[in-house]
Amino acid sequence: MSWHSMYKSSKFRHVYGKAGSREQCYEGIPITYSVHDSHFCAVNPKFLAVVTESAGGGAFLVIPLHKPGRIDPHHPKVCGHQGSVMDIRWSPFMDNIIASSSEDCTVRIWQIPDGGLRRNMTEALMILIGHIRRAGLIEWHPTCSGILLSAGYDCKILIWNLEEGVAVKMIDSHPDVILCMSFNTDGSLLATSCKDKKLCIIDPRSGKVLQEADCKSTRVNRVVFLGNLKRVLTTGVSRWNTRQIALWDQDLSAPITEEEIDGLSGVLFPFYDADTHMLYLAGKGDGNIRYYEVSPEKPFLQFLMEFRSPAPQKGLGVMPKRGVDVSECEIFRFYKLVTLKGLVEPISMIVPRRSETYQEDIFPMTAGTESALSAAEWLSGIDRGPLLISLKEAYKRPNPAGLRASKRVYSHGLVKVLPSTTYSMIVLSHKQLLKMVFKQQDEIRKLKDELGEKDERIRQLELELKNLRNTGSE
């Protein structure tokens, strides 16, 4: 009888975690003591943002990524919120744009100048007012730069059109606080978990609940879409108070597989890398990060290894794939908040390879910074996947020039402007500039499409000309 290993061959079998040296860490950061289940950290190839303790309102630090070391106690902050900051997210399309949500019930859009802050920033590019209780979660649309979602403790999800600065949809299908939101790859579906123990798949444009699972025996905390696999993964607590993960088909009929992790109490955060089909699990208050390989067939979730550290993590920021170090075969990078030390520590996930050439099998085409469609197109029902780039080629990040801070306030589509005529004119010009920036990516995409069509036409004409010459020579 032949013997078959329970493990299939995998190029990621020996991935290991590597903590950054002290010279690569960011020290002296007064990390927030908030107990809200958020990461309190966001990162992109230019900046690191960390929610911090602040008197008289909420604030977060923005640090240029290339300036690690000890942070000045008087480092400038983004401190325009009137309540504690609960969530921060960088735009996936513009590295200088960040969104924040707060206990003051507002969501604000900020533009960080190149090189970082030189003084405290109090004026936001946009102030989005719509929630009647604190705004706990925000989520950018994965392929449309002009769409942002926010979820509040009023049990509502608001969809914001940033090109117009208005709330275009309110999803009011949850009876309790929304714990997590996750888009699928093209942003056509939204998965949510709720405090009422229900897991939902929602059409975000109509607000209709397409699928629903009542997890009575478990308490689902976090949910994440698994790329193009048409599956979702949840983390939560079983009836025996053990942390567990569950894999679901998109129809949410029943879990495909469930696995108990341990008996700790911290929320288990899932991170999914669609390029490598790897899943990372990191618990709040833990010092370790487990990672798995996800496959469409059994065993579905294959445990690979575990990164261990004695320092507990408050939260984790994740670098977009376009910011990893390709030359070191780094496929994923975390930024770990260590509250007791006031430290932010980078942790790299590395595939051990000796070759110095570009490893195309572990770095496939990945999402770039170009928007695939405009807000109007998405709202009209059009879906497109992300525009992909190769990490092998030189990559230039767009600089949204011309954006400046303004004091616009939006409330359910009604624009409130301060009663000064001069200030109204300034706000109007800022609106026009913002719309130009968001629509510029759509114009670039259309021009590229036209250029591709013309190139195809040229190739056809060259082929016809070649055929005519061959016919004439005969």
TrEMBL record:
Residues 430-471 form a coiled coil. Keywords: Actin-binding, Coiled coil, Repeat, WD repeat. Residues 6-69 form the DUF1899 domain. InterPro entries: Coronin, DUF1899, WD40/YVTN_repeat-like_dom_sf, WD40_repeat_CS, WD40_repeat_dom_sf, WD40_rpt. WD repeats lie at residues 78-120, 128-170, 171-212. PROSITE patterns: WD_REPEATS_1 (PS00678), WD_REPEATS_2 (PS50082), WD_REPEATS_REGION (PS50294). One of its GO terms (molecular function) is actin filament binding. PANTHER family: CORONIN (PTHR10856), CORONIN-2B (PTHR10856:SF17). Belongs to the WD repeat coronin family. This is Coronin. It comes from Sinocyclocheilus rhinocerous.
